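Quick illustration, no need to memorize.
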Amino acid sequence: MIRFRFAIITFLFFALGAQSYLFAQAMNPPIYSITHNGVGTTFSPGDTLTVMLRGASGGTATFDVTAVTTGVPMQEVSPGNYVGHFTIPAGRQIPFASVAGHLSLNGSQSSLVAKHSVAIWDYTTPVAQRPEVSPPPGAATTSLRPLVSVYFLNPIRVNSVDLTADGTEYANQIQITPNSVNWTPAYNLSPGSHHVVISAMDTSGQRVLREWNFYVIGFTGSNIIQSVSHMPNHVTSGQTVTVVMLGTSGGAATMTVGRGGPIAMTEGQPGVYAGSYTVPAGYQGPYADLTVQLQLPDGRQGSLTDTNALLVQATPPGSFFLSLDNPYQNSMVHSRFDVTGETVPGFKVNISAWGKDGQPIASTQVIANREGNFDAQINLKNAVPPGTRLTVVAQAQDDQGDVSDESRFDVYYRQ
């Protein structure tokens, strides 16, 4: 009888303890996503990292960057959407720095690490330690005459180098060392995408080729707007996108999203403007340009369009949707990279990567979780050379075999 009572007491103790543990877990504030503006780019000293966290409203949010900073405060710019900014310091060479967000509410805290790391590099370090190409593939720069450079691991023949930018050859304007090629345009590059091809012969007689795109961001209004970003990157009808602009404080800001707008933006803290837009039913995408406008009391005004257009996937009544979060269009990926997004809970998502010749290179399948989120990994297995442009195709499928519209985006492979 004593052993029986002891067993009952022990059972009740562990049962109540488990219930208390589950209750405590349930009290943790949810974090749905954390993204940043560092995908496909390399930060230098003085650049601004913008982190956006989506979770429970009414909390206190911060973020950390591995080996760089901790506890950076974030502001709740709209219910459940938190934004924070950090200026990159000098003297850091960190190719893969993790970004972690934290959300506290009612005495409990949750944390989530961003799917993509941040590359931070101080270009005052020796050239032998620099990234392979600059500006990085898919990166955006505010310089109208950026340094375009390639670093080769093996020495090259200095008389074998060719460089073209946007189809024009500039071989007579480049600076060449045994391991690098450098070119600074003698003219201002126009805002938008620019395509660079650099080829050379190494000392063993092998032809080496580097081909990539980068973006130039043009400013108006005496550079009163520094940057514009948004989250999420892919939406469907009924979803809300949050737009954040960094600029001169004390102005009146508005934004337009595709055909929607102008929409007023609020300056929550000095120089940080935010606004929200809900995609109406039946919106005909697939892409919507995001443009912000800022007017200052002294009469100066400016506008800036986000280099990453918002992907809008219309969802007719009764159909299901597929919304992708990462990677971004024209971003840089490694041999293994994650594809994340949302669809109907429990639906299968088929994801594949295709080469320029239209041949499949890698594919995978994943089942969306109870919230409709999915996270799949593509493994290229080094099947293509660095610099190759790939097309990633994703499609959701229900248990009857019906499929959603395909979602497609281009990425650049970097080994």
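Confidence is low (pLDDT under 50) at residues 2-26, 125-131.
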